[in-house]
Amino acid sequence: MTFSSHSSSRAARMWREIADRVYVRRFLEYNVTIGLIVGDGDMLLVDTRASERQARELQSEVRWIGQGRLHVVNTHHHFDHAFGNFVFLPADIWGHERCAVRLREDGPTALVALAAATPEIALEYTETRITPPNKTFRDSAQLQLGGRKVELHHFGRGHTDNDVVVVVPDVHAIFAGDLVEQAGPPSFEDSYPMDWPGTLGRLLEVAHGPVVPGHGEVVTRSFVEGQLADLAALAQLARRVRFDGGSVTDALPLSPFPPVAARHALIRAFAQLAGEL
Ligand SMILES: [Zn+2]
Predict the structure, then answer these.
(1) In this prediction, what percent of the chain has a pLDDT beyond 90?
(2) Fewer CB within 10 A of the end CB, N or C, for the chain?
(3) Tens digits of per-residue pLDDT, 193-235?
(4) How far is ligand 1, taken at its centre, from the CA of residue 147, in Å?
């Protein structure tokens, strides 16, 4: 066995088929969970990792799984999901219209921050070219991977203002991006906590099989229901405390989330309630 075939078979084993020709791969960097949906001749990659180097690694692994024409979708604009886009050009790169806007507006600053935070691999980020999606939509889009249908939905604001849910109807598999988090508490820095429960409610309407989170292990519908209950409790808490004239600090001890996540969530929730977001 040559080294290359050994390493390729090892990488191929890192991809798990969670439903017929629907694959997921977890990466150590940022604990991100990447998806690949293989159709008849065409394939759809769900998210592209955090840099061009990481994306090239991803691209070579994808080629071990299938040889069809590759399309890409970004679940949202965050760096760990969309900064590898350039590597896949000239592919169609799908995303919400706000994903493209946010990448253009915030991408360059995020790259500088990443390079500063990881000086040992700063070059990896300074060499990365921000590439917004070239196929955008507002509410939903339908793709044909050969004869296999895939739906892209924006169910409303939640983790960001541009979250996309990828649905593979023939096997009831969905990719939730960071609307669902298994590896830790949800991430609230760019979030809309007052909208998130409603958005997750719409996601649940199509969750009849495996749900792939943006980070961590594949979950089931009941896990999403639990996360929805916590998000709904947080939104209700923010509303009640603000109505009583209280502050984020007053609400913090009552939150269903750990303190750091809860603080971000409550700051964003109070800003939404004040009409600032
Ligand atoms: Zn995110």
Answers:
(1) 92
(2) N
(3) 999 999 999 999 999 999 999 999 999 999 999 999 999 999 9
(4) 31
Q: What string of DSSP letters covers 9-71?
A: HHHHHTEEEEETTEEEEE-SGGGBEEEEEE-SSEEEEE---SSHHHHHHHHHHHHHH--SEEE
What is the CA(60)–ligand 1 centre distance, in A? 24
Task: Answer whether residue 4 shows pLDDT above 60.
Answer: no
Q: Per the structure block, which two tokens stand in for 88?
A: 């896949």
Contact 85, 72 (CB under 8 A): yes
Q: How many helices (H) and strands (E) does the chain have?
A: 9, 12
Count other C-beta atoms under 10 Å from residue 147's C-beta: 10
User: What is the CA(33)–ligand 1 centre distance, in A?
Assistant: 11
Q: What's the burial of 29, exposed, middle or buried (CB within 10 Å: 0-12/13-18/19+)?
A: middle
The rounded Å distance from CA 6 to ligand 1 centre is 33
Rounded distance from Cα 100 to ligand 1 centre (Å): 15
Residue 250, CB half-sphere, CA atoms under 13 Å: how many? 12
pLDDT at 1: 34
Question: Does 45 score more than 90 pLDDT?
Answer: yes
- Ligand 1 center to 4 CA (angstroms): 33
193 CA to centre of ligand 1 in angstroms: 14
Q: What spacing in Å lies between the alpha carbon of 76 and ligand 1's midpoint?
A: 7
The two structure tokens encoding residue 47 = 């998210």
Task: Report the separation in Å between the CA atom of 151 and the middle of ligand 1, taken as the mean of its atom positions.
Answer: 20
pLDDT at 9: 67
Q: How far is the CA of 149 from the centre of ligand 1 (A)?
A: 26
